[in-house]
Amino acid sequence: MSRGLGRGVISQYPPLITASTRPLLRSLLASSGGDFVPAIRRYAGGLNLSVVYGLEATRDDDPAVLKVEQATDLLANEVAGGGLWAVDIFPFRACIVPAA
Description:
By secondary structure, the chain is mostly helical. 68% of the residues lie in helices and 0% in strands. It has helices at residues 2-5, 7-10, 14-30, 37-53, 63-80, 86-89, 93-96.
């Protein structure tokens, strides 16, 4: 975490933010129909992919961004929201963690 988000590294992010913001603004201006969600997804997902993995999202339906969305959906809806918890996967945790 400190290598990617440490105090000394964050100062290097403004060029990445600037490079990601220009395509976002172009996409927002081009989407006159009011569907801004794909452009915002590309911006947020693309910026994260750039910081964490060094990948560049080149379009709104970028395969890497779509995979991140699928993983986030799985985590949010199946693991955390679907009633699946670490104690379900690792039953020995029930013996370690006292019941509330």
